[in-house]
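Ex. 9. Protein: Glycosyl hydrolase.
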Amino acid sequence: MNVEKNFASRASLWGACALVGCLLASVPWVAQATTLAVLQQPALPTAKAPRAVLLGLARAGERLVAVGERGIVLLSDDAGVTWRQAKVPVSVSLTAVQFVDAEQGWAVGHLGVVLHTEDGGQTWQKQLDGERAIALAVQVAERDAHQPGGASHLEQARHMLADGPDKPFLDLYFSDRLHGYVVGAYNQIYRTDDGGRSWQPWMRHVDNPQGLNLYGIRALGKDLLLVGERGLLLRSTDAGQSFQALKSPYEGSFFGLLGTRDGALIAYGLRGNAWWSDDRGGSWRRLETGIESTLASALELRDGSLLLASQSGELLFSHDQGRSFDKRQSRSGGTVAAVQQAVDGSLASVGLSGVAADQDPRASGKP
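Predicted structure tokens for Glycosyl hydrolase:
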């Protein structure tokens, strides 16, 4: 399996620098040199950071936190009007970020990096990287080789070891300050029960025999759900102890999930495809988005309405559970990789052109 090929559909979202990083990492001697450099070199301060390629955006209390290329992390305390750069110990591209409260948060990225902050994103510490992640995977696979399916998992782990530590993490989910998961390429999934001080390889707990890439993880009530390439859908009903494959309504890749306050589930991905389930993923209905661009982000707004955002900058608002959409263009006029609602109710987005303060959803005339 070739990581660059599998991720080609997301190349425009990641940006040229992220894709080039994957291509260079495919050459063994370049991969080793690149790994040592970006894992040891702190992100460089730059006045151009707000215009950098940014891929993730989260709320930390009233603060907005954006992450992206070269380890850039940006903070805004005025609803996205101004931004300042945080201190980050690596210069690897970051793909996603989540906070469980105003202080505690995590970010993931290329080369298997997991970062943690305890001060609302102002400073970060590395908790995991690709070299350590693969070593853990091999160690656990060797320990469990005698168990059913153990030989196959050991072979996969050794293959990843030989291939190098270049595999990215693409999403994460933490339920609180202690319990969380990170997921990514080649069925990579790691679990922590101590806030990231230690990590457990969790691949054996996932019904993904082809080792398909995992693009998203979210909770819906007590369930945990995963999405990935080729229509992959998985659900855990036992607090993450096992993830079973669900019947998928779609053969293309899903890049994300949204669980609503009313208990509905939305899976979204390539070519404007979005699907709705009100029975925890047991059955799905297609949402008629009216667009062909890849959907990159989804959000439930304060008033309960839904927002889907595409890579092309299209913002789709729905006030009737996805039965119809009011389409607009992002005020930035550029791509959108992630979108968040700020404390004042306005929207902020990030993408290939950096950060943008977007339109207030109340402009639609809805409360």
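Check your answer against this statement. The chain has one domain: 3-364.
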